[in-house]
Write a structure and sequence with these properties.
The protein is an alpha+beta fold. The chain has two domains: 39 residues, no CATH class; 34 residues, no CATH class. It is 27% helix and 16% strand. The strands form two sheets. Strands 1-2 form a two-stranded antiparallel ribbon. Strands 3-4 form a two-stranded antiparallel sheet. It is flat and about 45 Å long. The two termini are 30 Å apart.
């Protein structure tokens, strides 16, 4: 969302993706900035996301760039005592 609101990528993306991240010209950034009229979010499934600290800097891909791993509901154990959840992976 940052490019559409601020006209530039967040620093975390720039740091993680480096030269693989496309550049915007000043003119493109001006067109992008504040160009949203509407944002709709449609969440229809439960997916658990957790920090993938074991990824190497050379692991590239959609999820690897975000430094996350994903789990479905079957991979989560819910504690009946306090209602908290933990991943089994």
């Amino acid at each position: 969302m940052d490019p559409l609101i601020f006209g530039k990528y967040p620093e975390t993306m720039v740091t993680m993706l480096g030269p693989r991240l496309p550049d915007f010209t000043d003119e493109q950034a001006t067109y992008l900035r504040q160009s949203l009229d509407f944002v709709g979010i449609n969440a229809v499934t439960a997916t658990y996301v957790y920090n993938a600290t074991d990824l190497q800097e050379t692991d590239y891909g959609y999820f690897e760039d975000m430094r996350i791993a994903m789990s479905g509901a079957d991979d989560v154990v819910r504690s009946s005592e306090n209602g908290s959840s933990k991943f089994t992976k």
